[in-house]
Design brief:
heterodimer, A: alpha/beta, Alpha-Beta Plaits, Rossmann fold, 2 domains, 3-stranded antiparallel β-sheet, 8 helices, 10 strands, about 25% helix, B: alpha+beta, 14 strands, binds iron/sulfur cluster
């Protein structure tokens, strides 16, 4: 007992504060695309090597909803076309907000009603639907003393009846489809659905398998997609807070500054 | 390399039913363990069942196969109870009935699937009998009641369904129905060997990306004839141990949470994070994704030099040491864990339980010693075994294994790295003959087996993955018997099995 109190005292504060900066190298975060990338041969080469068809040289886009951040394209182009920066902040929002090219779309903010209802008190039920558990573990890590999600009034709850929304991971295996729909129906309105990770967005590396639905969007209406494979806890945190206009830099000037 | 083995299938004649049974029973009796049992479609309407055994001495592998009819084959579960789930899987994927199997419930497919859908059966076989529905074991008696939990659980974990039959508070039987995470993983592995398989292997079980991708990388390299050099192998093993430390910390934190011991919960969840961040410094991802390439390691790996890593590990090691001793010596913790969820040594042996759970129940097995990869060959690991088989033993094994890993890492990181760590540029060639490749790695949960059948043209026609969880899930049902329902979360956490790895 005594040792544990001493141990606690000695450790001090471990929690990260906002806004956070880059993670240490060689973290593969937000990709940076060279302006000339899509006009050269390299885009074709990278598109061929990409196992999730995230690169579309014709449309000149990179779909972060498909990308599993394997880094193979960076290697194929010698980091001259695509380079993964150590920035954990990623675009989030509807499907189209994750497709980057010449420009990166502006990530959306929840509408006024949703903000006023859920912006400072959000309870989520997590549903793991056919993923590898990587995204679940990162969502779980949000509760640890380092990320400390609860300080923002956001928490994961045990029952969908207590929840304002779902956070879904995985491509939605056919065996989980019914349970996912039932869990969704058990959440009272207004409710939001957040889908995290390449699998939940597009099926990820499992897209096309006979046993999956290729993403949450084919089963439920999704409000926010958060990319990554799996998304780093800071990616999740910045997207969750950003969507409710609570992340520094994502707060419109007319809003009062929230306590962090 | 004793962690991978190639069998020339062109030189192998399938055994008859009886010799195959003898092969299996004899191997187990001689101290080998069942690495994997799986079926393969080797032509229209033609099927083989393969068994890979090994481990009775370092680098020992053996293989046997039998040709079976598209309809059924005599069950092997009676001579090798560890084959139990493997046979259920063969039935689910191929529609071939293991005749006489004691409990043939679907493992992969629930209601709602087409009843004649067997994804690996292919055509050319007579239409199979429709798949049987799931039948839960009914416990009868005065006051017996059932509690159904899941698939969606209270915490942030993977889905699975547990059905308890209880007398009052006491669990009489626990039936575990999995399959919710089934995503057809194995079927995505077929085709020309390349990065696709390696990327998939990182997503077999998200918390074991290093373990699985090490096994997969070595298998592909052996098949293609492009083994990694010493330095690359060394970083692979270093990452494997960091992954072990991260997950063992996470488990000790989880166990603390389940008994309401907040000191342990907050410290170990933080320490787990520190270890994951080291994995990120090594590979660019908190779970070690991107570590492996075929023939070497990724160009961004290692992102941290041996010396810096040593310093970080020394700091982490002393914190783990301190928090672990406080946790495991606290009388309230010991009182809750001791005698809870006991898995008897005999049961563990019969069911072919592996890894941490097996070692906590007296199984002296560890793939790092029994199927050593080059770096473990050079620097042998210390295998920690306990006899008690309860939650406390499983917690202590994790703690002791972490301590051994820290010591091992400090030795290995201060010794020289030879050769290059980057993949070879040279052209790869296939084996040229029909080959079975078996690769074994000791992930943090236990031994991971990858097996691939490669045709002469170099294409993978069947890929089998045996995650340690697949062996160990049945053990959980035994461990919780006669415990109170409220101790189930604790027992479950002390096993901490992967759903995704088992459901594939
Ligand atoms: S990093 Fe993303 S875009 Fe690049 S090859 Fe991998 S999955 Fe494709």
């Amino acid at each position: 007992m005594f040792e544990s109190i001493v141990g606690r005292k000695r450790k001090g504060k471990a929690t990260v504060s906002l806004p956070f900066g880059n993670l240490p190298e060689p973290f593969r975060g937000m990709p940076v695309i060279d302006p000339d990338f899509f006009y050269g041969e390299t885009a074709e080469t990278c598109a061929r090597i990409c196992e999730t068809q995230a690169i579309d040289p014709k449309a000149q886009t990179l779909d972060l909803g498909r990308c599993i951040f394997c880094g193979l394209c960076e290697e194929a182009c010698g980091a001259r076309g695509i380079r993964f920066s150590p920035d954990p902040h990623m675009p989030y929002g509807k499907r189209e907000h994750l497709v980057i090219g010449d420009t990166t779309p502006e990530s959306p903010i929840a509408d006024r009603t949703l903000r006023s209802l859920l912006g400072r008190s959000l309870h989520l039920r997590e549903v793991s639907a056919g993923g590898c558990n990587g995204c679940d573990l990162e969502a779980q890590a949000l509760g640890n003393p380092v990320f400390d999600l609860q300080r923002f009034g956001i928490d994961f709850v045990a029952s969908p009846r207590h929840a304002d929304g779902l956070l879904v991971t995985g491509p939605v295996s056919r065996n989980m489809k019914e349970a996912l729909i039932k869990t969704y129906e058990a959440v009272a309105e207004p409710r939001i659905v957040i889908a995290t990770g390449a699998c939940a967005i597009s099926g990820g590396i499992f897209r096309g398998s006979y046993a999956v639905e290729d993403g949450v969007g084919s089963v439920l209406p999704v409000d926010v997609y958060i990319p990554g494979c799996p998304p780093h806890p800071l990616t999740l945190l910045s997207a969750l807070l950003g969507f409710f206009a609570r992340y520094p830099g994502k707060i419109p000037p007319s809003f009062p500054t929230p306590r962090t | 390399m004793r962690c991978v083995h190639l069998f020339d299938l062109d030189a192998v004649n399938p055994l008859g039913d009886a010799p195959f049974r003898t092969f299996l029973a004899g191997g187990i009796a001689a101290g080998d363990r069942l690495l994997a049992l799986f079926a393969e479609r080797c032509g229209p309407g033609r099927f083989l069942v393969h068994a890979a055994l090994g481990g009775s001495f370092p680098g020992k592998y053996s293989h046997g196969c039998v040709e079976v009819s598209p309809k059924s084959f005599p069950t092997l579960t009676d001579v090798c109870p560890g084959a139990h789930w493997f046979e259920r899987e063969i039935y689910d994927m191929f529609g071939i009935l293991p005749q006489g199997h004691p409990e043939l419930n679907p493992l992969r497919f629930h209601e709602g699937w087409e009843k004649r859908f067997f994804p690996m059966r292919g055509d050319g076989s007579p239409s199979p009998e429709p798949r049987r529905g799931y039948r839960f074991l009914q416990v009868r008696g005065e006051g017996i009641h059932e509690i159904a939990v899941g698939p969606v659980h209270a915490g942030i974990i993977e889905p699975g369904h547990f059905r308890f039959s209880c007398a009052g508070e006491t669990i009489q039987n626990l039936e575990i129905q999995l399959g919710y995470q089934h995503k057809g993983t194995e079927s995505l592995f077929t085709g020309a060997p390349g990065m696709r398989q390696l990327l998939l292997s990182e997503s077999i079980s998200g918390d074991t990306a290093v373990g699985h991708s090490n096994a997969c990388a070595r298998l592909l390299e052996q098949v293609l004839g492009t083994p990694a050099e010493h330095a690359a192998e060394k970083w692979r093993s270093v990452a494997l141990e960091v992954e072990r430390i991260a997950n063992h910390c996470g488990d000790l934190g989880g166990l603390s949470t389940d008994i309401g011991y907040l000191f342990g919960a907050s410290h170990f969840s933080r320490l787990r994070g520190t270890a994951l961040n080291l994995l990120m410094r090594l590979t660019g991802n908190r779970f070690g994704r991107g570590l492996n390439r075929i023939g070497g390691i990724g160009p961004r790996v290692p992102g941290i030099g041996a010396e810096d890593l040593l310093t970080e590990l020394a700091r982490l090691g002393s914190e783990v040491e301190e928090a672990g001793s406080v946790l495991l010596e606290a009388p309230s913790v010991v009182a809750r864990m001791e005698g809870t969820g006991r898995l008897l040594a005999a049961t563990a042996k019969t069911l072919q339980i592996v890894g941490v759970v097996g070692r906590a129940s007296g199984r002296d097995i560890d793939a790092r010693r029994d199927f050593p990869s080059p770096c473990f060959e050079e620097h042998p690991p210390r295998v920690v075994v306990a006899a008690e088989g309860d939650v406390l033993a499983r917690a202590r094994i994790r703690y002791e294994e972490m301590r051994s890993s820290f010591r091992w890492l400090s030795k290995v990181l201060s010794s020289p790295f030879a050769g290059t760590s980057s993949p070879h540029a040279g052209p790869a060639s296939g084996p040229g003959r029909r080959t079975l490749a078996v690769s074994v790695e000791e992930g943090w949960r236990g031994e991971i087996v990858h097996a691939a059948i490669v045709e002469g043209n170099g294409h993978i026609v069947r890929y089998k993955i045996a995650d340690p969880s697949f062996h160990n899930w049945p053990g959980l049902s035994f461990a919780v018997q006669k415990n109170v329902v409220s101790d189930f979360p604790l027992c479950n956490k002390s096993f901490n099995l992967s759903y995704s790895g088992a459901d594939l």
